[in-house]
């Protein structure tokens, strides 16, 4: 019973795009007609059966003809022959004898009803793999798996929504919207998919249409925190600040312990010129954070800018130091810190901050000229 194990590099095998593989020849080499039992990550906790197949063609090839063959490597899904060689060394425990014989194995998947071994739920298997890839941020690979699962069941609302989310993360917003539309044909009152579509429309630059779809979702569920959050943001993008503020205030009544809501409200109030209220909102965001990892460095920086506008430079400096502690190489934060240090007359410290900016971006004109101004005041 020949068994083959495939890894994360072999995603095309699961999706059916690739129907061949290269392996070291066994003591009893494979031959045409052999039945293959194929697994995903056979020796790991993620082990799962993926399919059975018949060998349809075999090409014997010495390792000498493989190791520098970039064309063959690319056909196998690798960047080049060196990348393929690294995979072979992992697969076979290190060094490979140049005289070793390999086989290029061509195969054809067997219909699951004709399997001899344990049968699987193929759609569930592919979906699980897609979800794992999605959660690990490998969106280019997960989209291939969602496509493969949708070929099995094109009307699965979960898959259509997940593929839409996946395509959105790849910046393919029009394709994502098509997925959401297909899902909404089946479940037109699914508020989460409506909200996802609104977000995709917003990201594609179609803000007015995003607002219309958000309104549909809102009418179905006016107290949903996620719908309210994005509705407030869309209204903000439309310049309807008063309406956006009402939405954020309503959301705070529902979910007052969410730092993201307080941050968004603070950003909005800052844009409205209501600086004292903005600072109160930012302060509340910091207060409700469970730990530093939840703190929004960008919003803390905005709070610092609000303090500058109010002439409260010591408070502004505290904010910029806190933002830098979270994102120590952020040029904007370092630049802002330098500016407030200048206002406080601490020119040597300001120069140090501007030097950190110039170290990361030597062409930053703001840092250059502000540093020159500090040097003149020493």
Furnish the topology, listing elements before pairings.
Elements: E1 3-6, H1 11-15, E2 20-24, E3 35-40, E4 48-62, H2 70-75, H3 81-91, E5 101-109, H4 122-135, H5 139-152, H6 157-169, H7 173-186, H8 191-203, H9 207-220, H10 225-237, H11 241-254, H12 259-271, H13 275-288, H14 297-309, H15 313-326, H16 331-343, H17 347-360, H18 365-376
Parallel strand pairs: 1-3
Antiparallel strand pairs: 2-5, 3-4, 4-5
Helix pairs in contact: 4-5, 5-6, 6-7, 6-8, 7-8, 8-9, 8-10, 9-10, 10-11, 11-12, 12-13, 12-14, 13-14, 14-15, 15-16, 16-17, 16-18, 17-18
Characterise this structure:
By secondary structure, the protein is α+β, with helices and mostly antiparallel strands. It has 3 domains: 3-119, Sulfate adenylyltransferase, CATH 3.10.400; 121-185, Tetratricopeptide repeat domain (Serine Threonine Protein Phosphatase 5, Tetratricopeptide repeat, Alpha Horseshoe); 186-376, Alpha Horseshoe (Serine Threonine Protein Phosphatase 5, Tetratricopeptide repeat), CATH 1.25.40.10. 59% of the residues lie in helices and 10% in strands. It contains 18 helices and 5 strands. The protein has helices at residues 11-15, 70-75, 81-91, 122-135, 139-152, 157-169, 173-186, 191-203, 207-220, 225-237, 241-254, 259-271, 275-288, 297-309, 313-326, 331-343, 347-360, 365-376, and strands spanning 3-6, 20-24, 35-40, 48-62, 101-109. A 5-stranded mixed beta sheet has the order 1-3-4-5-2. A hairpin with a 7-residue loop joins strand 3 (35-40) and strand 4. The longest helix has 14 residues, at 122-135. The radius of gyration is 28 Å and the shape is flat.
């Amino acid at each position: 019973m020949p068994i083959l194990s495939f890894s994360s590099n072999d995603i095309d095998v699961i999706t059916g795009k690739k129907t061949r593989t290269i392996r070291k020849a066994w003591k009893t080499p494979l031959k045409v007609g052999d039945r293959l039992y194929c697994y995903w990550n056979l020796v790991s906790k993620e082990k799962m059966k993926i399919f059975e197949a018949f060998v349809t063609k075999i090409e014997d090839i010495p390792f000498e003809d493989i190791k520098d063959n970039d064309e063959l490597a690319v056909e196998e899904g690798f960047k080049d022959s060196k990348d393929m060689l690294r995979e072979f060394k992992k697969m076979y425990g290190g060094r490979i004898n140049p005289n070793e014989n390999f086989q290029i194995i061509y195969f054809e998947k067997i219909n699951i009803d004709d399997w001899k071994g344990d049968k699987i739920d193929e759609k569930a298997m592919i979906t699980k793999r897609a979800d794992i890839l999605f959660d690990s941020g490998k969106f280019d690979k997960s989209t291939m798996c969602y496509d493969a699962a949708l070929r099995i069941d094109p009307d699965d609302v979960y898959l259509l929504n997940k593929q839409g989310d996946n395509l959105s993360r790849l910046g393919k917003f029009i394709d994502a919207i098509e997925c959401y539309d297909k899902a909404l044909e089946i479940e037109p009152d699914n508020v989460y998919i409506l909200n996802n579509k609104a977000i995709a429309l917003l990201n594609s630059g179609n803000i007015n249409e995003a607002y219309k779809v958000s309104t549909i979702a809102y009418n179905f569920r006016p107290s949903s925190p996620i719908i309210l959050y994005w509705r407030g943001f869309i209204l903000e993008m439309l310049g309807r600040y008063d309406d956006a503020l009402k939405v954020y205030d309503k959301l705070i009544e529902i979910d007052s312990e969410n730092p993201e809501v307080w941050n968004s409200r603070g950003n909005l109030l800052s844009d409205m010129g209501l600086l004292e209220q903005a600072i109160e909102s930012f302060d509340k965001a910091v207060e409700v954070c469970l730990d530093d990892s939840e703190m929004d460095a960008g919003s803390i920086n905005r709070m610092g800018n609000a303090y500058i506008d109010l002439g409260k430079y010591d408070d502004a400096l505290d904010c910029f130091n806190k933002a830098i502690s979270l994102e120590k190489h952020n040029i904007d934060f370092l630049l802002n810190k330098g500016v407030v240090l200048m206002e406080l007359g601490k020119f040597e410290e300001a120069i140090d901050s501007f030097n950190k900016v110039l170290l990361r971006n030597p062409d930053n004109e703001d840092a250059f000229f502000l540093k020159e101004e500090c040097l003149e005041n020493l």
